[in-house]
Amino acid sequence: MRVTSDATTQPRHPRAEHDLLRLLAEDRPARELSAVDAPTELVDLALTVRTRIDALRRREQALVALADSARDLATSDTQAQTLHAIVRRARALLRTDVAYILLYDRERGDTYMEATDGSVSAAFQSLRVRLGDGLGGLVAKTRKPYWTADYPHDDRFTHTRAIDDAVGEEGIVAICGTPLLVDEEFVGVLFASNRSPRPFDRDEVVLLGSFAALAAAALVKTRSVTDSAAALAALSEAHETVRRHTEGVERAAAAHDRFTELVLRGGGVDDITDALVQSLGGWAVLVDVGGQTRSAAGDPAPTESVVEPDAVLEAARAATRATPHGRTWVAPVAAASELLGALVVGGPRPLDDADRRTVERAAVVTALVLTFERYAADGRRRLRGGLVTDLVQGRGRATGRRQGALAEGIDLREPFCLAVIRPVDPADGQGLARSVDGAVGDRGLVGRIDDDVVVLLPAEDAAKAAERLARLVRGVRPVTIGTAGPGRGVEAPGTLYASARRTAIALEALGRAGEHGAAEGLGFAGLVVADQPDVGAFVDGMLGPVLRYDAEHGTDLVGTLDAYFAAGASPREASRRLHVHPNTVGQRLARVATLLGAGWTRPEVALEVQLALRMRRLLPAAPSTPRSTGATGARTTPASTPHDHPRQAPHNRCHDPLALDLTECQAAPRLALALSALKC
Questions:
Q1: Cα–Cα–Cα angle for 216, 72, 218, nearest 5°?
Q2: Could you please report the per-residue DSSP string of 486-535?
Q3: Whole-number Å distance between alpha carbons of 151 and 164
């Protein structure tokens, strides 16, 4: 600065001027300028120059700081980094104790603390401020800067308990706040504050405002970048989702094609479960509607605790597609609205949507296979059932029936037994033949006659055949099983059916519904409770071998048995009555033991033999040639002649008032029939 004066009125002080200029050039502080021995006017002029130099220097420093801040903000990648950079720089620019930012919440219409630097109070760091409350709320409402050297005692602002408590806990006294604006868009409020009274000059307020403009722009830019990055990430995720979905659809379609190809090649459910495991890994199990495992593939095989049939089927009934079930996935195998089973898959990894669709495709193809199998089984079952009906009712040529049975694995020349199966609950009769056929399989022939399920199977012991069938159909539903046999020949099934049916009905009448038994095991009890008693069959069942032996050899073993029991099972007394030697009676009884079995003298068997003897006396005279039932070792009713039983006819008809003829026996109640037989 150049200063001129009138040389005539104002003396020059070259030495003082030199000292002042030198101190200014050396950037000496104002106090040294004030100490120079120079006129007051020169000293004041030098101090003014000093002040302006300091102001320019501070502005330069501020501009440098703003430039550094701009670079710092430009390198922030996220909003959080940008916010922390802003409060850190603001605190450094104004050399304050604390700097912080309140961001504007558009949804709630207030501001909230988002970033701080130098703060120690948790309440202050979580503060929310309504527009108009406190200094910050006033800045937010008016979009203009405000500052105070002593906020707690400044009545220009609306004080609230929440704000004052938070400010007091932080220890803040002096506050300077300026709005964050970008193109009239309000972003928030930037603050610089001290914990002691401090008057902020206008240069500091302007500096904070300039920095706030940079900060707002950087914050909006970061938000835009963040939003763009989020949108790009969402777009990439959507693209990846579409890609995975497309790949999953293609993979599921390829699996479906593979399943279909397997079926077209004649593959079954085992091939489908194998292909499913090859596609997904892990393991797969097919459980049919009866709770049985139809197919299993994969390693390690699941345990019963993992695949519990009842729970799996219940989950399948409640589902329309593959759904999680514990650690597994269950897909219903259904045709129309009928559940055929459940496909259970599990393994080391969870299933994605594509895997889920693959499981569902496998379930659909499995349902088709099971439906085809059912149609084929129904056709075969109808053929086998028709064959059973023909065998029992004797329809068609004997040769055709024999060959038909042989084609199904039943050789009628070998011993076989016949069973009648009746449901305990009549409501369970629907589908019983199908269930029994599924349980019996190729072990026998299954058919249906009226309401009875009939099973013909190779066996030599009716009781063991009943036990075997009971084990096979145990999981089907509660049933009563009556068996008869063994028999041979194409005519035997009819006779065995009548006996087996009587046995099943007798079991029901005896309160043993749901159990199983053979005709021979019931003995006379079966005759008493049967709905159509067959006295001849009972007599033949007990005495047949003896009667045939007598007919073939001209002996009278039956008469010996009558005398033996009439004598109280005393061979000696029997010999006296028969007028033969006791040894002869002993030999005859030994022959009887050979024919009836060594246990014929056991009390329960002896009772049945005595009843058969008495019932035989009630029967009308039989033809001279015994009739054969076709059963192995079958008993026949021999001709009753005076030579066979010389003393029988008078006893039977003339001397016993309780004797009944055949028509009377059939018409009388079953219990009366038994009592009449015992009294004869």
A1: 20
A2: EE-STTHHHHHHHHHHHHHHHHHHTT-TT-EEEHHHHTHHHHHH-SS--H
A3: 9
Cβ neighbours for 648, distance < 8 A, ≥ 6 positions apart:
559, 562, 617, 640
The pLDDT tens digits for 555-593 are 999 889 888 888 888 888 888 888 899 899 889 989 988
pLDDT at 139: 94
What percentage of the chain reaches a pLDDT higher than 70?
A: 82
Cβ neighbors of 204 (< 8 A, separation 6 or more) are: 94, 176
Between CA 162 and CA 160 the distance in angstroms is 6
The pLDDT of residue 1 is above 50: no
Q: Is residue 323 a contact partner of residue 330, using CB atoms and an 8 Å limit?
A: yes
- 192 in Cβ contact with 176 (< 8 Å): yes
d(CA 255, CA 250) in angstroms, rounded, equals: 9
Structure tokens at 81: 């980094």
pLDDT above 60 (res 638):
no
pLDDT tens-digit map of 200-259: 988 889 888 888 887 787 777 777 777 777 888 888 888 888 887 787 778 777 877 888
Question: Which residues lie across from 374 on neighbouring strands?
Answer: none
Q: Are 176 and 209 in contact (CB under 8 A)?
A: no
Cα 469 from Cα 180, distance rounded (Å): 90
Q: How far apart are CA 244 and CA 226, in angstroms?
A: 26
Per-residue pLDDT averaged across 160-186, rounded? 92
Compute φ and ψ for 104, nearest 5 degrees. Answer: -85, 130
End-to-end alpha-carbon separation of the chain, Å?
A: 162
Contact 511, 459 (CB under 8 A): no
How far apart are the C-alpha atoms of 473 and 454, rounded to whole Å?
Answer: 13
The per-residue pLDDT for range 443-460, each reduced to its tens digit, is 888 888 888 899 999 998
Both tokens of residue 560? 């010996």
Rounded to 10 degrees, the C-alpha dihedral 471/475/480/482 comes to -30
Cis check: omega of the bond before 300, within 30 degrees of 0 = yes
What pLDDT is recorded for position 66?
62
CA distance 92 to 191: 12
Extended beta strands in 395-477, E state? 416-423, 445-449, 452-458
Whether residue 493 contacts residue 402, with contact meaning beta carbons closer than 8 Å, is answered with: no
Residues 483, 465: contact at Cβ < 8 Å? yes
Task: Say yes or no to pLDDT of 324 above 70.
Answer: yes
Which residues are CB-contacts of 585 (< 8 A; sequence separation ≥ 6)? 560, 563, 564, 571, 572, 574, 575, 578
Whether 216 and 222 have beta carbons less than 8 Å apart is answered as no
**Euclidean distance between CA atoms 513 and 540, whole angstroms:** 27
Element (H, E) at 94: helix 79-94
pLDDT digits (tens, 9 = 90+) for 460-504: 888 898 898 888 887 667 889 999 888 889 988 988 898 888 888
Residue 658, Cβ neighbours under 10 Å: how many? 12
How many C-beta atoms surround the C-beta of residue 448 within 10 A? 21
- Alpha-carbon distance of 382 to 391, in angstroms, equals 14
Structure tokens at 73: 């903000």
What pLDDT is attached to residue 150?
A: 95
Between CA 309 and CA 66 the distance in angstroms is: 74
Which residues neighbour 126 within 8 Å (Cβ) at sequence distance 6 or greater? 113
Instruction: Give 628's pLDDT tier (boundaries 50, 70, 90).
Output: very low
Residue 14, C-beta contacts closer than 8 angstroms, at least 6 positions apart: none
- If one compares 176 and 295, the residue with the highest pLDDT of the two is 176
126 close to 139: Cβ distance less than 8 angstroms: no
| Contact residues for 327 (Cβ-Cβ < 8 A; gap 6+) | 306, 346
CA atoms of 500 and 520, how far apart (whole Å): 10
